[in-house]
């Protein structure tokens, strides 16, 4: 529960902008007749799951997360010597060092070098949280929300999340923004939430940067609609390989939304998202190849990318008609190309 990956669950305005994808459990190849309901935008992804953001991966760990930790313990942790890190940090943790307590909690939470023990992790996070470590406050708040290893307590979780957010933890800032909107919907809550989204975005969190793009694209929480500003936030998130931002930015550039009409650049961003496995981007890329927008027209590439999206469950009636018009030889080549895209 602690370390599952997540995408942001954004404010209601973001969800309204997305039309559910048409999913059909069809054969991966064309030629069959998949059943799909009529949808105005068949290549729109479903709204993101309501899942909170968790910690960075080990490779992204910043020593500042743990506070003033002894160099030897963190050095061992960073090099993957987790048992050594545990043994070096434990005496200090038992003596009340909050940074060492946070590191010990991290090791138990992730099961690094030893069996995962969420209950022990919760105990150490709680101790470090009481001493003001934002990372520990954030993690313990998540545990209070989940309620799997400690008694659930949403009020305490909210207070800890706010303390961690005010202490500079950008993941806490992002999650707090959504908690604020969920607890008391309304304009003032939206305005307050945007301030935390913005802080997390300026701290470099791609999820929050994407949220800010939606804030400016739709006008939310006291911000006026400003598509140029929205495009800038999309670029920041897309540059960090946030695939939904790459999808939107590519679409905006192709359509000229936000003031910049650059089909070639738009094709490039959609290609990056498609290469990363974004199904909606794969479908849109197929359409660009078919129409020769931002790239040379290529019917085989168009078919291959749509087949790839189709295998993932996306059905687009327009592209189904396109596949039906291919010759058997073209279809065979497209399937072979799609197989290489995996």
TrEMBL record:
* UniProt-recorded name of the protein: Sel1 domain-containing protein repeat-containing protein
List the signal peptide residues: 1-26
Keywords carried by this UniProt record: Signal
Which organism encodes this protein? Answer: Nitratireductor pacificus pht-3B
In terms of Pfam families, this protein maps to: Sel1 (PF08238)
- Keyword Signal attached: yes
Q: Out of the domains of life, which is the source? A: Bacteria
| SUPFAM superfamilies tied to this protein | HCP-like
